[in-house]
Predict the structure of Glycoside hydrolase family 13 protein.
Amino acid sequence: MGQPRPARNQSAWWRSAVIYQVYVRSFADGDGDGTGDLAGVRARLPYLAELGVDALWFNPWYRSPMADGGYDVADYRSIDPAFGTLAEAEKLIAEARELGIRTLVDIVPNHVSDQHPWFQAALAGGPERELFHFRPGRGEHGELPPNDWPSQFAGSSEPVWTRLPDGDWYLHLFTPEQPDLNWEHPAVRQEHEEILRFWFERGVAGVRIDSAALLAKDPDLPDYVEGRDPNPYVDRDELHDIYRSWRSVADAYDGIFVGEVWLPDSERFARYLRPDELHTAFNFSFLSCPWDAGRLRTSIDETLAEHAPVGAPATWVLCNHDVTRTVTRYGRTDTGFDFTAKAFGTPTDLALGNRRARAAALLSLALPGSVYVYQGEELGLPEVELPLDSIQDPMHFRSGGTDPGRDGCRVPLPWDAEAPYAGFGGDPWLPQPAGWSDYAADRQSEDPASMLSLYRAALRVRRTEPGFGDGPLSWLAADEGVLAFARTDGLLCVVNLADGPVGLPEHSELLLGSGPLDADGLLPPDTAVWLRA
């Protein structure tokens, strides 16, 4: 299985951790059926240890009909048979920990699958209806939805209510297969605290909370009014009591939480990170920011400022299972990310995107706090524009076919350039495009100039240099279009986003570069370096 690596400060490991996101279905297929599974992950643990990550975050691996990629959970205490068994999950957690790698699991508290026993009992007219949001419709015969809330799928105009044969409607902010839970009911709260205990007792180190700001709803379920304060279903004050209760559970196991919290108000965002609530939250400002020095600096400054009052570490991420891959996004005219702007046929300069993605990797890994790396980013994988008949993402269908959906960043990984299906396993559940083997991990391992080699080197330096990770950041004077900052212990990071080469600050050592310096020792455009002063 490989050798365990020296670990950082154990008491606050999460403040500086590099956490690798595993989308199991697309990671590695151990049994040859075309679907990634826990056996595939276990077989690749040595690869992850060599990469140098501190923890793995798994997207939902629970029993699910997969109406929304596993975010429609039918049973939190069992593993979906497509992925393996609970016993295999327990082995994976233990084997990873032996290599110095912790495990985080995903909890989806806003909703469950329509196949969940609670909802099935509710459909049968049982008292379980109180665990969801069932309402009579409006109109003369109840034929209109109870309110006009918008779908949480960008670009979708479909209603968030579905009517049953008995005339009642139920709420689902996402797909009809994902009925929203009623968090005013004590049984809902008790069940989720027991789920947390279940996984902490199996050795997980933390929990990522999906759609963390959506759980609580205004009990009157009023119509949506843009700008209404408080919002009827986003960031309601009742949420904080829920997360305080959860924190007491996590503290008993020395576990941590990371929340998926999309909020424009930095003060309200910071409330989730108070010492008795969540430990960290995803930084979507940085993820969606264009490749622009001024806007990136603003995002970094605002992120650090909003975390400072509560003493929480920032998180940095370039891509995830919902977002256009970094190499592709940075090779486009519009280098930002917006769900509503996704379109088929968007031109991309992959060579330019690759240079920028390499520089962005060093930028993110030099910033204070923890970093999340989505599987395949370390291979420089581009977004795949899939054939229409291969797309499975409900976001595509709920947009009427105009949105490419999120499957383009979920194409199964290439491991072995000479093996069928690039070494993924069986015939992949999403098709791999021509040339996918060029990105294979085995080929990149032998190339010192590859994206994989860059990530391995960066994580090695970050792990051995205590000045990286959590701690202060000081901006340095720099030319327009250049980001330059100092960390502790004399560590410097310089990123050139300008149109021409620039000089470097005084330094004693070049630790790592995303690309070579030019013949005059200048830093070329779209290149980053780590220096020792």
